[in-house]
């Protein structure tokens, strides 16, 4: 999720004027499919525009040279754009989980691309946790956690001994792993590839801004001083994780609650630092496509840049933090998508024949909480397929249902234990 101030919002509107594509070029793949080495996934116009504006000067080509349409792409962003040789492509999904999932699935199933060896770079701006970075910082994630996939009480009506109104499906209190699963609660991507991407991104000379830096200094007043120390440092490249929610949230209480959710749902290993709307949606699409052999999930990367803080500094309200304060992180966050991202793209292209064409083998588990791609998740209740993964063409689905492994979701889930937490 992205928060930006009134001034930044005005800038975003100005930048949202659609990029006018070059004339449709005759594709060099008249009798085949475009097989990009890297597909950049942007979420809204400013995140995309920076690539259109800056990439030509990198020597990697002009993304508006080849413009591909496909049924089901966003009405606002109806093209997948590619450089002339097809090595790098970019698409914009539109904001929110529904738009992101719909657009990526449409592009992948259009029949116009061969994505089996493509590296996916999800690259957008986000709210940043001041415990991990500052405005303009770049985070490369291992996990994304769908924190809004929970029951919720309004905080004014939650039990008096609770610190948050959010609690997992099939449970009776916060900070318990969900008793029932949809499958998208946690998605884990290759830590090995993430670390390579961090190395490439760290070559970037990141953009900063005096106003944004001054805003970060406000967090020094929090005690202990070490708690938010990263907020007052210059932008940097960090390893930490994202949470997905279509609800824009602000404030220390919710920030801490979703830190706890991230820890619990990842078996104590996840570290929430960036909040976004689309990450779980895009990665879930890639899981499903990977089951069918259409993509390689080990080639997914998730990068977010901090455009604003997810909670206020001392003496500022959560409302001011979300809607009033001019944090001035929007422009530098957009800049740093490109500055860090282009280094990742260059690194993959430069090392294509030596490293990346054959793929980078993950050292960790990758996939969802079901173990859909094989292996055993290091979080959650364990693989639903005993480690084998789901078979393509739906061959596993009927077998799973016969074994009684449906999610069991519904409004009544978890009600039976209500008395144990004083709800009757």
Automatic annotation (TrEMBL):
Signal peptide stretch: 1-19
Protein name in the entry: Purine nucleoside permease
A Pfam match: NUP
Native source organism of the sequence: Sporothrix stenoceras
The keyword Signal is annotated on this UniProt entry: yes
Disordered as annotated region, ranges: 377-424
Keyword Coiled coil: no
Keyword entries, A-Z: Signal
């Amino acid at each position: 999720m992205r928060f930006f101030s009134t001034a930044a919002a005005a800038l975003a509107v100005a930048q949202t004027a659609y990029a006018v594509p070059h004339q449709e070029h005759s594709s060099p793949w008249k009798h085949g499919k475009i097989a990009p080495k890297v597909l950049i996934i942007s979420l809204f116009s400013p995140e995309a525009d920076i690539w259109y504006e800056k990439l030509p000067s990198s020597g990697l080509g002009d993304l508006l040279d080849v413009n591909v349409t496909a049924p089901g792409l966003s009405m606002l962003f109806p093209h997948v754009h590619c450089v002339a040789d097809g090595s790098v492509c970019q698409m914009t999904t539109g904001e929110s989980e529904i738009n992101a999932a719909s657009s990526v699935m449409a592009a992948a199933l259009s029949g116009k691309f061969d994505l089996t060896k493509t590296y996916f770079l999800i690259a957008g701006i986000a709210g940043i946790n001041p415990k991990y970075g500052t405005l303009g910082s770049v985070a490369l994630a291992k996990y994304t956690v769908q924190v809004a996939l929970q029951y919720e009480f309004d905080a004014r009506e939650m039990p008096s001994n609770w610190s948050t109104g959010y609690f997992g499906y099939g449970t009776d209190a916060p900070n318990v792993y969900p008793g029932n699963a949809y499958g998208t609660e946690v998605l884990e991507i290759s830590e090995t590839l993430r670390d390579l991407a961090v190395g490439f991104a760290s070559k970037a000379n990141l953009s900063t801004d005096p106003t944004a830096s001054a805003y970060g200094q406000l967090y020094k007043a929090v005690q202990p001083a070490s708690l938010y120390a990263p907020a007052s440092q210059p932008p940097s490249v960090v390893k930490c994780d994202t949470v997905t929610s279509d609800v824009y949230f602000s404030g220390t209480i919710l920030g801490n609650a979703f830190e706890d959710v991230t820890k619990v749902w990842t078996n104590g290993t996840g570290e929430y630092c960036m909040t976004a709307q689309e990450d779980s949606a895009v990665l879930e699409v890639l899981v499903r496509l990977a089951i069918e052999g259409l993509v390689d999930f080990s080639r997914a990367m998730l990068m977010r840049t901090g455009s604003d803080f997810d909670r206020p500094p001392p003496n500022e309200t959560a409302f001011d933090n979300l809607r009033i304060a001019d944090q001035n992180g929007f422009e530098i966050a957009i800049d740093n998508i490109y500055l860090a991202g282009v280094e990742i793209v260059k690194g993959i292209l430069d090392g294509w024949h030596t490293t990346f064409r054959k793929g980078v083998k993950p050292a960790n588990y990758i996939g969802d909480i079901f173990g859909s791609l094989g292996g055993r998740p290091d979080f959650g209740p364990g693989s639903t397929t005993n480690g084998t993964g789901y078979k393509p063409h739906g061959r596993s689905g009927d077998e799973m249902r016969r074994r009684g492994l449906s999610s069991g979701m519904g409004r009544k889930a978890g009600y039976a234990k209500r008395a144990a937490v004083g709800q009757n």
